[in-house]
Amino acid sequence: AEVLINLNASPFHRGKHKERWQVLADRATEQKMPIIYVNQVGGQDELVFDGGSFAVNEDGQLATVAPDFTEGSFEMALERTVRGLQIEQGIAAAALSDVAAVWQALVLGVRDYVEKNGFPGVVLGLSGGIDSAVTLAVAVDALGAERVHAVMMPFKYTADMSIEDAGEQAAAMAVEYDIISIEPIYEAFMAGLSAQFEGLSADTTEENLQARCRGVLLMSISNKKHRLVLTTGNKSELAVGYSTLYGDMAGGFDALKDCPKMLVYALAQYRNTLGYCIPQRVIDRPPSAELAPDQTDQDNLPPYEKLDEIIERYVEDDQSPEQIVAAGFSQNDVERVVRLIDLNEYKRRQAPVGVRITTRGFGRDRRYPISWAWRKS
After folding, report:
1. Whole-angstrom Cα distance, residue 226 to residue 121?
2. Helices 304-311 and 261-274 sit at what angle, rounded to 10 degrees?
């Protein structure tokens, strides 16, 4: 053989380009011949194939690089030299930044999931928070504003700024937008459950009921209008169970399922560089589920900077709690986070499918038992 052609369906994850280039460069120098690497483009459930086909010469140097996340036909010329066939320098598509590549993966993943499953559009809850704001922007970039319906579902704990910011973003992105209060629905549920709850103190049951009222609304709109419900949870929340089954987890696809919280902030900042659409106040304010007065995520969780790294080390890097503590994290934080990850496998089994952008996402990449009777209390 004088040239190798490598046909691939290689799914995207962060940093994958460098891995591919290094592997092909090593093989080219080892075999002393050029290699043409051709990769698929498109979304298939949680996997996104990012294209980025390229060619390397026998010295391992890149000769041609096609654009990422773009279908197309690209020509390259081969020249016979004293060293054998050589690929002439061709197109050299600019490399995407890490955050830009993730954004393109999310957009392509949402677009192809919606298109390939025949949905006319999507509906999602727009809370005025960062996760739903980024999900809305991804949906509009993927499908166009005319196919996206955003619904704000306030309750007595919803801050005025949340309603204002949700409305501002919906207007900026020109999507269909409605405000539907969950208060009458919630009160009807509470009235129906009053005999069951008599004499019992309020707890997270009432908080979860708020989320489930919103889930009922979105799923009803979905059923009636045949639109796919996009959920808006991120990897950090999914890891520690900071979500409600049959509430904010109710839906058909989760664009941010494999995105840790700090990456969600970076995605919001990146999207605003393409055209302002996410109010800065949404990015700057402390995250909150707004299910109780003056509630913030950090009331019950470590700071997201720490939480995300503990999750990455435990879930993606297979580090033990002892190894994570040795890396400088508090033993209390590590033990608590690891325990939450293990305990909430049952929730993740019922989570919607979503785009995978890391080396190990929850779902098919990480299969752990739900029942752990043998684990330490």
Report:
1. 8
2. 110
Model confidence pLDDT, tens digit, residues 213-227: 999 999 999 999 999
Cα–Cα distance measured from residue 302 to residue 238, given in angstroms and rounded to the nearest whole number = 15
- In 3D, which of 83, 184, 166 has the Cα closest to residue 128? 166
- CA–CA gap between residue 294 and residue 287 (Å, rounded): 11
CATH of span 99-297:
3.40.50.620
Rounded to an integer, what distance in angstroms lies between the CA atom of residue 356 and that of residue 110?
11
pLDDT tens-digit readout, 16-35 = 989 999 999 999 999 888 99
- For residue 39, report the phi and psi dihedrals to the nearest 5 degrees: -120, 145
The pTM (predicted TM-score) of the whole model is 0.92
- Phi first, then psi: give them for residue 124, nearest 5 degrees: -150, 155
Q: How far is CA 149 from the centre of its chain?
A: 19
Residue 103, token pair as written in the block: 């954004």
Asked whether 93 and 345 are in contact (CB, 8 A), the reply is no
254 closest CA partner among 118, 125, 99, 104: 125
